[in-house]
Amino acid sequence: MVSVRRQPVSRREAAGAATVIAGGAFSVVAASGTAATIAVAVLAVCGELALFLRRRIVPAELSAVAVAVVIGTGLAITVVAPQGLGLIPVLAGASVLPLSLPAGPSRGAAIAVVSVGFGVTIAAVSDSYAGLLAGTGAWFVADRTVEHEAVQVERDRALALLAEVEASRHAVREAAAGEERNRIAREMHDVLAHSLAGLSVQLQAIRAVAGREGAPPALTGPIDRAAQLARDGVQEARAAVGALRAAPSYGVEAVEGLVAGFPGEARLEVTGRPRPLAPETGHAVYRAVQEAMTNAARYATGSTIEVRMAWEERQLLVGVRDGGLPAGRRPSGVKGGGTGLRSMAERIEAVGGTLAAGPEPGGAGWRIGVRVPVAPGGPGEAGGKAEK
Predict the structure, then answer these.
(1) The whole model's pTM is what?
(2) Is it the case that residue 155 has pLDDT exceeding 70?
(3) Which of 355, 268, 347, 345 is CA-nearest to residue 317?
(4) 140 plus 84 within the same structural domain
(5) Which residues partner with 319 through β-bridges?
(6) Domain with 185 in it
(7) Same domain, yes or no: 357 and 227
(8) Which of 33, 20, 175 is nearest to 90 (CA)?
(9) What is the 3-state secondary structure (H, E, C) of 187-247?
(10) CB of 303 within 8 A of CB of 326?
(11) In what order do the strands lie in the sheet with 366-373?
(12) Residues 6 or more apart whose Cβ sits within 8 Å of residue 363
């Protein structure tokens, strides 16, 4: 079954379609006789329709057929109405022909056939061998498309790799920060906590001697208070060590910086009034958005990524979607580990939320939806402050 994909029309494609329509209209006017006029009009409509369907028909084999129809109608218009602009559909078809065929001998052969066919047609119509040079125009247009495609492939791969590098750099920065926190924690535990514990023992010994010697309250009172302060200091030092050893947490407020720093085109939309989130919940949401954006850069390179966060009374809804792989583009080739989606789901479920992923309903692209509960309490700032 042939599937149809809905994709927005770019300015370049709209300009190309308008040019083909204008060329067809001019060819209709330039045709001689009623029969020729009707034939040119039908050919022009068929060519424009085939060019329109090329972007939406999958698999690629049918796309190549649509391109062949565009080129064929252009050649036919050139024969029926030599004074018209049949060369426009031919050149338009030649410009997209490389995008409809895999790289290799078949693509080169198809470009050669179109170039020779176009040159021979122009030579026959103009009754001059100089018309053969027109074939170089079709070849040149197709060759430029091949070069542009190669540049686009490398650009898409670079973008996907940049997204991977950014995620890796973030992980390395977290690991370095965690190691430094652990080092400080070890120093506090080995030096400060032990020193305070030793001080507490010494003060207790002094207090015992003072009591045995019948020291007045003016002396034993300050000793007791100092001993209590030392014990409190030991507890506070241990609590600080535990906090330092805890992994740094990023919350939903850090998503804005994540989207702003994305190497491709990404947008963030936030609706509703922020409510409290448990730190682990905010961190899980942040990680889910990060992984979803990295996946989009891998498999839908060049598409705009939309991140939407909607605060509700009892839950936070987060959606990350892309527009699918743009027409004429190929996947970046950068592969993930294959466990990203499962890890996302496990992380979200661990904080009482749900995650759904799948194709975007009614259109191209992929969507990841997250629902997490908000913390009990009134409105306020979202939890989970990001560690810098």
Answers:
(1) 0.52
(2) yes
(3) 355
(4) yes
(5) 308, 369
(6) 167-245
(7) no
(8) 20
(9) HHHHHHHHHHHHHHHHHHHHHHHHHHCCCCHHHHHHHHHHHHHHHHHHHHHHHHHHHHHCC
(10) yes
(11) 266-271, 305-311, 315-322, 366-373, 354-359
(12) 5, 6, 323, 324
* Residue 212 tokens, joined: 């045995």
The phi and psi torsions of 132 (rounded to 5 degrees) equal -60, -25
Q: How many domains does the chain have?
A: 3
Tokens of 207: 């207090």
Burial of 264-297, coded b for 16+ CB within 10 Å and e otherwise, reads bebebeeeeebbbbbbbbbbbbbebbbbbbbbbb
248: pLDDT strictly greater than 60: no
On the question of pLDDT at 97 being above 60, the answer is: yes
Residues 221 and 274 in one domain: no
Which whole-number Å values give the CA distances from 22 to 18, 28, 72, 78, 309, in the listed order? 6, 10, 18, 15, 45
Take residue 214 and report the two structure tokens written for it.
Answer: 């019948």
CATH of the domain at 286: 3.30.565.10
Q: 384 in a domain, yes or no? A: no
Last residue of a domain, one of 226, 245, 264: 245
d(CA 169, CA 159) in angstroms, rounded, equals 15
